[in-house]
Design goal:
- Helix 6 packs antiparallel against helix 7 (about 110-130) and helix 12 (about 230-260) packs antiparallel against helix 14 (about 265-290).
- This protein has helices at about 1-10, 10-40, 40-55, 65-75, 75-80, 95-105, 110-130, 135, 140-145, 150-175, 205-225, 230-260, 260-265, 265-290, 295-300; strands at about 180-185, 190, 195-200.
- A hairpin with a 4-residue loop joins strand 2 and strand 3.
- With about 300 residues, it is mainly α.
- The protein folds into 2 domains: about 1-150, no CATH class; about 155-300, no CATH class.
- It is built from 15 helices and 3 strands.
- The longest helix has about 30 residues, at about 230-260.
- The protein is elongated and about 75 Å long.
- Strands 1-2-3 form a 3-stranded antiparallel beta sheet, with helices on one face.
Amino acid sequence: MISRIYSQVVCPGAEVNKTRDNAHSAWHNFIGLSVIICLLAIPVLKGLWQLWHCGRNFDGMMLVPVMCGFILFKSRNEFASSIFKPIKKALYILPATTGAMLAAWAYDLPRISGLFLVFNLLAASMGIFGYSNWKLSAMPLIFLLLMIPPPQGAVDFITVNLQRFFSLIMETLLSSLSSHFIERNGFEFRFTAPNYSIPLTTECSGIRSLLGFIIISFFLVVVDRHTVLTAVFMLSAGIATALVLNFARILITIQLRLSGQEEYATGSWHGFLGLFVFLIGCAALGRLSGFLKPLNPQNKEAR
């Protein structure tokens, strides 16, 4: 006790250096434990890799671990200056949950084994860092949940309903604005060109861009340390952005096909249009996140 008082009064820098050394030690311990967990989870990561490539809707999820690594790397200086209160009891459950993760993989349950992987990393974070600064240590790992594809049944349900949603909107719009529009039959639109039909395929549902914008929105929430209220607003804005921009992409594609420019409505040009629209959405969400960031009390205190 006396030595602690002495170090604070006579050598205040020593106390600061000790805190910094403890933070560096905690950071290195977390990195080491995370590497061990990920090495044990190599079969699980292979299963997730196969899910990402089983369909075009999930390929963007492979960027989530990279984005999580960027968030942690960007926060490395804050880790070095933070004071952590570890909950070491959280580390005791790692052997059991690691076994459950590998058991789920052995029974060909890649999504459940992926959930256990994220849970193990969160347990390691709580055991080493604690929850005193959960936005710094836990939120990037919670973001990792987005690397796990949703069940295919849920994706199919959302896809069909998005097709139905955009079909109804396009029917209303074309009925009032296009003199060439005849009728809608399911997800197919008929025009007088003559007897020209344009289908609204599953790719036009926008499920891929919807998942992508949800990932981007959550990424901005974690990077900019939004409050719960602004985080909900950001995620809602991501969903709305996906719907609006996908509708614009469908409308542009239909107009290109009706005007006889079929080569620009399919193939690489169509892919470029989708990429261009996605970049516009990312820029808009980035500006929105920057606008909402000053509303965060934590950011006001930092200023």
